[in-house]
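Dissemination and training. As part of the outreach component of the grant, students in the summer workshop were shown how a complex can be specified as a set of sequence lines and then modelled as a single object. The example used during the hands-on session is reproduced here so that future cohorts can follow it. Participants entered these lines:
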Amino acid sequence: MDVALDDVTVEIAGTALVRRLNLTVGAGDVVGLVGPNGSGKSTALRCIYRALEPTTGTVLLDGSDIGGLSLRNSARAVAAVTQDGSPELDFTVTEIVELGRYPHHRGGAALGRRERDVCAEAMHRVGVTHLADRGVLSLSGGERQRVLIARALAQEPAVLVLDEPTNHLDVRHQVELLSFLRTCGLTVVVALHDLNLAAAACDRLAVLRDGTVADDGPPSDVLTPDLIDRTFGVRPDIVRHPVTGVPQLVYHLGPDEPTPGGTHP
Ligand SMILES: Nc1ncnc2c1ncn2[C@@H]1O[C@H](COP(=O)(O)OP(=O)(O)OP(=O)(O)O)[C@@H](O)[C@H]1O
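and obtained this result:
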């Protein structure tokens, strides 16, 4: 299923949070939103998972206006892992993941065998099976984040929207999550601050500045020292990943930077 934001503007109290934003994500593609704090990444994602309605412009799923779908039907197509999705009640991990089945389920009937299998598979994919009976409030930040990803997968969406999903994850789980996003076959739109992870994981990067897409293309076209400087006000060196060839950024920390031998000058 493909997703498009067509000339989307979101205004709140007379201020445009995103303006005239255009983005297309082909079926099965992984597209990263990158950009400075406050550039509109979360706002754009909220329009896709319908936490916000564009003031003008349209979000399209396979060419149809998402606003024409019932919320239940759009939740069958689009799942989100958000920055503010942490549960406040101490449900068990299994109960939280089973909430992902809600858009597919009528009434309060118990989940059937297939539904429970979908949830078990989702927990397995993000490595939280061993936490199944734990109260979610007792989990670490990274464990909780993986539970929320499992809940999104249990939704069996065609489109997965993730807002900074690597927050709280240790490096192994960051790598596992981004490898999974590359191979899951879903249409993925993901906001990421780590440009090296974004370059490794995404087919394309859309660079947001001041609420609109300023650049859009494959990581090797987009991640240039000039663009990083223009966008973030820092000028890294760009090296190539020795195996994949994707660009990787090396930052300079200034006069106190450690020397190669590991001691400060
Ligand atoms: N409900 C709101 N009311 C007013 N302003 C808002 C609201 N939500 C977001 N903003 C503002 O809109 C701008 C874009 O915010 P948004 O969260 O989309 O940026 P972001 O690129 O995701 O930032 P970050 O990288 O810090 O997560 C920011 O200046 C933010 O302060």
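The chain has a mean pLDDT of 91. Students were then asked to discuss how this feature might be tested experimentally.
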